[in-house]
């Protein structure tokens, strides 16, 4: 029986992966429609999706839950939590007829799982108590997989929780580099001064589509970093490029020292930053695809800038922090091999 259940899980995972691609396509169309209709269109979509959470059709209810997550609909959280706690049937497993290759699969549609995924995307702390309760229950294949619950909790809180694997092993959730940067991008810890300084990273996008801003590999990239003194005293930092690195995530994490990038406007000596003033540093990458910065980039990319203080003995006006980390910038990277993209950025 255990092997049968394990096979069911495997087939279910394959089907859900296929379904996820279909959902992404639908959401791209949704984003396009949303942009055309403006704020009122978004409000209408959210209102309809909240109503559809109570649909007797499990497919409709599950799609509504996913839509609310990708719309980041915080106003839908109370309704989603209500459905999550309801006793009605919220999942269905269907046997699909064989395709042209004779392959027949079991496809699972789970409203509860879709809601948990969307609560993580929305990031509203009101969902934390309800999600934590799932971690206290024993796991069966007919219940919510607590690994997904732990992932949603990390997206909301930035903390790792223990969950039980399908093999019944209790383990600590380990976020992927992408999950870490996704949380940083949402929570913006850089807005709170570190020993009196904040760091703001801006990297211009090459164009826009339904996925947001994107970069093209055969174009230059201009990176601007602003370090602001939020304290009441004069600060000094060693602004040499050797003390900065760009931490990027495109699947794996890659650290690129700023000294490997052209920096005609970056500082090379001790910089004095008075209260309320901003030190601005700039790096210009002439062709993105030829730069060590874009090594290994595919698809979505997260980038943050990390400054490490080289001064071991911090005296006088020297900044007393160890590391200063900027906000995370997210873009979609298109390598030059993609010929179908409009080079005018449209």
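^ Assign residues to that structure.
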């Amino acid at each position: 029986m255990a092997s049968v259940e394990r096979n069911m899980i495997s087939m279910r995972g394959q089907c859900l992966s296929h379904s996820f691609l279909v959902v992404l396509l639908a959401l791209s169309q949704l984003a396009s429609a949303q942009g055309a209709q403006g704020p009122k269109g978004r409000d209408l979509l959210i209102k309809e999706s909240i109503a559809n959470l109570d649909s007797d059709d499990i497919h409709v209810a599950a799609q509504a839950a996913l839509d609310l997550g990708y719309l980041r609909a915080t106003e839908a959280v109370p309704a989603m939590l209500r459905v999550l706690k309801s006793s009605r049937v919220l999942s269905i497993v269907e046997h699909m007829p064989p395709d042209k290759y004779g392959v027949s699969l079991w496809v699972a549609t789970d409203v509860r799982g879709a809601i948990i995924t969307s609560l993580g995307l929305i990031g509203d702390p009101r969902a934390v108590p309800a999600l934590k309760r799932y971690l206290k229950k024993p796991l069966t294949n007919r219940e919510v997989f607590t690994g997904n619950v732990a992932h949603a909790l990390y997206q909301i809180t930035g903390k790792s929780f223990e969950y039980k694997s399908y093999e019944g092993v209790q383990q600590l959730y380990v976020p992927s580099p992408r999950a870490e940067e996704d949380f940083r991008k949402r929570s913006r810890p850089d807005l709170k001064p570190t020993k009196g300084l904040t760091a703001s990273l801006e990297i211009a996008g090459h164009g826009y589509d339904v996925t947001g801003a994107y970069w093209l590999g055969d174009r230059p990239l201009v990176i601007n970093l602003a370090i602001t003194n939020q304290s009441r005293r004069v600060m000094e930092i060693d602004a040499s490029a050797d003390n900065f690195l760009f931490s990027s995530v495109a699947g794996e994490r890659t650290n690129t020292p700023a000294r490997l990038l052209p920096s005609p406007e970056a500082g090379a000596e001790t910089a004095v930053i008075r209260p309320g003033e901003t030190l601005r540093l700039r790096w210009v990458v002439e062709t993105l695809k030829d730069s060590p910065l874009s090594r290994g980039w595919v698809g979505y990319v997260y980038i943050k800038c990390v400054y490490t203080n080289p001064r071991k003995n911090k005296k006088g006006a020297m900044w007393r922090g160890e590391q200063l980390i900027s906000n995370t910038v997210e873009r979609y990277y298109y390598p030059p091999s993609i010929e179908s993209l409009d080079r005018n950025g449209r």
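Residues 205 and 213 are 5 Å apart (CA to CA).
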